[in-house]
């Protein structure tokens, strides 16, 4: 199944009014470059995970105003017939630079650089931000949860609490990039070729006359894949003993109980008791599954208290991106070049001033493969050891590029003349990339609280250009 592309009407009205204005002023075909970036790392953390590129490129490639869309715009009585005729042939025919999905990224870095006519590059702003912001936020949350879980498996169970149907799809996709490679969402499984997992609800148990009858019926229907929810009535008093009865009956029939799920109570304590119970009864392979408003902080606490959980089912707090610094990623999309001239937003607040001109995004890697820092440079600028680079928020802070580092360009052309150059790597490959890159960050970068802050700098050329433009007020 294909991932559905957004309608051209999934945008803000002002994108259409600006597009119409450019058209009427004869400015539509001016050449322009925009950068998509965010200013603050999510969740008060030190990093983010890049995600959303494939659906973003699909949107750009398939962007069309069909007759129904144009008829709706005509009904608004805002736009001229000449402009509506122009929309019938409107396409994105530009180019895009971006890192691969799964790349570890940081605040202020240009992620997507979109180049084309002013009309087409401006119009796609809202939809690109809608796609990219949310998927980065989910992928980053998933990476934090996966890191907290250690060697345990994590499943995505968030569909019922996600922000609408498309939110549910986007969560499953982005969570896979962040390291959560299985979902309860069947449509996501079909669209993205993800493994689907699930057990049963408390209502299954309550629908039967007693808990044991419910467990036996479920085991009869799914003997090869039986995971029993054991906390409907009394986890230790009835759930565990009844699950053991069914485990023994399954073994007599040539099957094994796959696991039991805990969805309430003290998960660290209950999981330890469940592990002891099944091990003592001769069922050490039975998996302990836990759910119930889990996130990276709860999982870390469970492990710290000696919990024996093999599989975590994470739903609400992943699907809604809950947590300090979560909720929304403040990604923005800014004009950086028009007709070959650098452009920037000039403001007295240096943290809100944008970085002008077309750029490179470079990563400095030491001889052991560890990441030193990232540098944002002008497109034709060459970095060398000993060169001074500057903090984009506080120019008084600066560093020197060390000797012996390897300099890597993080982005590549992913679209030209409105056509994707490739369809991107698989979600498995993106997840592997994220895991490998996270392991290359400096010590302390993965801490949940007060992490080490990875350094992002701007090059001397970009520093001088921005200072000059700010002084001139351009």
CATH class of the largest domain: Alpha Beta
Low-pLDDT ranges: none
- Which descriptor suits the 3D outline? globular
Round the mean pLDDT to the nearest integer and report it.
Answer: 95
Number of helical stretches of at least 4 residues: 16
Structural class: alpha/beta
CATH homologous superfamily assignment of the largest domain: nicotinate phosphoribosyltransferase
The total number of structural domains is: 2
CATH topology of the largest domain: nicotinate phosphoribosyltransferase
Report how far apart the termini are.
48 Å
Rg, alpha carbons: 26 Å
Q: Mind telling me which CATH architecture of the largest domain this is?
A: Alpha-Beta Barrel
Strand order of the largest sheet: 12-11-1-5-3-18-19
Question: How would you describe the overall organization of this protein?
Answer:
It is a single chain. The longest helix has 25 residues, at 125-149. Helix content is 37%, strand content 18%. The chain folds into two domains: 13-136 and 327-472, nicotinate phosphoribosyltransferase (Alpha-Beta Barrel), CATH 3.20.140.10; 198-285, Aldolase class I (TIM Barrel). α2 (53-62) packs antiparallel against α6 (125-149). Strands 12-11-1-5-3-18-19 form a seven-stranded antiparallel sheet. β13 (359-365) and β14 (371-378) form a beta hairpin. The mean pLDDT is 95. The radius of gyration is 26 Å and the shape is globular. By secondary structure, it is α/β, with parallel strands linked by helices. The chain has helices spanning 13-24, 53-62, 67-75, 81-87, 118-123, 125-149, 164-177, 186-192, 202-206, 211-221, 235-252, 267-280, 296-304, 316-319, 427-438, 460-472; strands spanning 31-37, 48-49, 95-98, 104-105, 112-117, 153-156, 227-229, 259-262, 287-290, 311-314, 332-338, 341-342, 359-365, 371-378, 388-390, 398-400, 406-409, 412-416, 419-420, 456-458. The chain is built from 16 helices and 20 strands.
């Amino acid at each position: 199944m294909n991932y559905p592309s957004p309608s051209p009407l999934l945008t803000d009205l002002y994108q259409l009014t600006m597009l119409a204005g450019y058209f009427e002023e004869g400015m539509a075909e001016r050449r322009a470059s925009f950068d998509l970036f965010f200013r603050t790392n999510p969740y008060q953390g030190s990093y983010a995970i890049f995600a959303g590129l494939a659906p973003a490129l699909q949107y750009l490639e398939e962007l069309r105003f069909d007759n129904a869309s144009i008829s709706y715009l005509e009904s608004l009585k805002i736009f001229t017939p000449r402009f509506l005729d122009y929309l019938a042939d409107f396409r994105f025919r530009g180019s895009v630079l971006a890192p691969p999905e799964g790349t570890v990224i940081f605040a202020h870095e240009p992620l997507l650089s979109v180049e084309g006519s002013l009309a087409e590059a401006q119009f796609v702003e809202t939809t690109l931000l809608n796609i990219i912001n949310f998927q980065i936020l989910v992928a980053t949350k998933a990476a934090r949860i996966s890191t907290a879980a250690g060697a345990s498996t994590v499943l995505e169970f968030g569909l019922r609490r996600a922000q609408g149907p498309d939110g549910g799809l986007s969560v499953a996709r982005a969570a896979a990039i962040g390291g959560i490679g299985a979902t309860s969402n069947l449509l996501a499984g079909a669209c993205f070729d993800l493994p689907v997992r699930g057990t049963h609800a408390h209502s299954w148990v309550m629908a039967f006359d007693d808990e044991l009858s419910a467990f036996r019926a479920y085991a009869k229907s799914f003997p090869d894949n039986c995971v029993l929810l054991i906390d409907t009535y009394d986890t230790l008093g009835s759930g565990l003993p009844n699950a053991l009865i069914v485990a023994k009956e399954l073994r007599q029939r040539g099957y094994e109980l796959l696991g039991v799920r805990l969805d309430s109570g003290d998960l660290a304590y209950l999981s330890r008791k469940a592990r002891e119970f099944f091990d003592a009864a001769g069922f050490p392979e039975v998996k302990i599954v836990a759910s119930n408003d889990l996130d990276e902080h709860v999982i870390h606490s469970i492990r710290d208290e000696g919990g024996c959980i093999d599989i975590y089912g994470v739903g609400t707090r992943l699907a809604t991106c809950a947590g300090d610094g979560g909720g929304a990623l403040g990604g923005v999309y800014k004009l950086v070049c028009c007709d070959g001239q650098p452009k920037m937003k000039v403001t007295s607040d240096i943290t809100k001033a944008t970085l002008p001109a077309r750029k490179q995004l470079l990563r400095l890697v030491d001889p052991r493969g560890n990441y030193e820092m990232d540098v944002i440079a002008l497109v034709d600028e060459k970095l060398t050891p000993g060169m001074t680079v500057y903090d984009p928020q506080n120019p008084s802070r600066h560093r020197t590029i060390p000797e012996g580092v390897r300099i890597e360009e993080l982005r590549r052309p992913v679209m030209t003349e409105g056509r994707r150059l490739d369809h991107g790597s698989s979600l498995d490959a993106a997840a592997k990339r994220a895991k490998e890159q996270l392991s290359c960050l400096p010590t302390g970068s993965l801490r949940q609280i007060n992490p080490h802050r990875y350094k992002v700098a701007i090059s001397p050329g970009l520093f001088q250009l921005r200072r000059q433009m700010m002084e001139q007020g351009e």
